[in-house]
Every structure is written in structure tokens, then in C-alpha cells.
Amino acid sequence: MPKAKIAPSMLSSDFSNLASEASRMLQCGADWLHMDIMDGHFVPNLTIGAPVIQSLRKHTTAYLDCHLMVTNPLDYVEPFGKAGASGFTFHVEASKDNWQELIQQIRSKGMKPGVALKPGTPVEDVYPLLDGENPVEMVLVMTVEPGFGGQKFMPEMMDKVRALRKKYPSLDIEVDGGLGPSTIDAAASAGANCIVAGSSVFGASEPAQVISLMRKSVDE
Ligand code: DX5
Ligand code: ZN
């Protein structure tokens, strides 16, 4: 499977010091920065939008892994492209009839398209987005209900990760929610290689140790 990408979720950072929190995570060994975009409609929480991505982009060249928990992802493609987002992951539940256009637009704005699925959504729902001519490049399997950091990992979601890994050996498969030292082995052995972690990294006294432990679990 592809190599580990460890992506601290900036949702758990001090938003008033976003640039320095980002550089602290990169110094601690983070590969990507996971940015949680919530519109207060698709999920019952509101976070940040393209203006904040644009501000952060002035301070870092890092891969900004944007997870859009929004009802109308197509409306966000152009602003996020202009703002300097690297990955644009939309929810399959929010893209029932326009995912082909979405993927094409995301790519045309220079971003990497990904699709996310909520815990209640069957894995089969994302297969059409992987099997067509213009496939997504990452699947994000939610391991908590989207909306908030600090929730408990749902191990039963690993069945989805295993099914995806078996069908798509070289696909980037991301897990998001409740990942940390006590849950990483379950995710890694199921085949996840992109690991989002918010509270376990930001809550640690030595975030670098948590990041390196998770990387080992995926790569070894
Ligand atoms: C939840 C977000 C996650 C969240 C993860 O909706 O998508 O990225 O910040 O936080 P932890 O690692 O604390 O569960
Ligand atoms: Zn997320």
C-alpha cells in the first residue's frame, strides 16, 4: 500500500495562532495539514472557509488536505482552488448527482479530488467514483460522525477500509476520527495509509512521538 501520510487535524489547533500551529506540526513530522471545513448545515458545526486557507497558504508550502463537510461542494471548488488548497475531499452524501462535474472541476483548479463517506454510508456508494474514467484519488472513511473532534473511533468502519484496500491496492485511503496510539494499529492493518489525528496529536506533550508512532504502524 502507499506510504503513510500523517495529517494532524487543525480543528484541534489554536485557531488564533494557525500559522505557528501549522509550522509546529510540520516540525513534528506531519506530512499533510488536515483542514476541516464545516458549513453549519451538512454538519451541526461551523469552522473555516477559503479566506482562512488563503491566509494560511501565505505561511506554508505544505499540502493542505481540505475535508469539505458542506452541502454544496461545487460552490467551494473555485474559491478553494484560488486560495491554494491542495486536496479537495467532498462528501459522497452531498454529491449525489454531480460528482462527475465536481471531480473534473477540482482537477481543473489544480487540486487532488477525494471523496469522503459518513459512518452510515455503505462503501459501495463510492465505487462509481473510483471506477470511471476520471476517478477520485483518495477515499476518506469517516471513523466518527463528522462535525466535531475528540470523539471515539468506530472500529466497525475498518470493514470499509479492508474492502477498499482489497479492490484498490494503490489508492490513498484516509481515516478520520478518533485516531491515535490506541487505534492506529486497527486502521493500519485494515489498509489505511492517510491518517488524520486531531486531539491525540494536539493533546500530546510530545506530538512528534505520536506522529512517528503512527507512521511506523502504517509503514512497517
Ligand atoms: C471531524 C473531523 C475530524 C476531526 C478529527 O468531523 O473531520 O478531522 O477533527 O479529530 P479527532 O482526531 O480528535 O477525532
Ligand atoms: Zn476531517
Summed up:
This protein has 220 residues and is an alpha/beta fold.
Describe the structure.
- With 220 residues, the protein is of the alpha/beta class.
- It has one domain: TIM Barrel (Alpha-Beta Barrel).
- The protein has an eight-stranded parallel β-sheet.
- Helix 6 links the parallel strand 6 and strand 7.
- Helix 2 packs parallel to helix 3, helix 3 packs parallel to helix 4 and helix 7 runs parallel beside helix 9.
- The site of zinc ion (ZN) has 6 residues, from strand 2.
- Zinc ion binds next to strand 2.
CATH architecture: Alpha-Beta Barrel
If you compute it from the alpha carbons, what radius of gyration comes out, rounded to the nearest whole angstrom?
16 Å
User: Helical residue percent?
Assistant: 25-40%
Strand order of the largest sheet: 1-8-7-6-5-4-3-2
What's the total helix number? 9
State the shape: globular
Give the topology string: H per helix, E per strand.
Answer: EHEHEHEHEHEHEHEHH
Binding site for a divalent metal cation: 34, 36, 67, 176
GO molecular function: D-ribulose-phosphate 3-epimerase activity; metal ion binding
Protein name: Ribulose-phosphate 3-epimerase
Pfam families: Ribul_P_3_epim
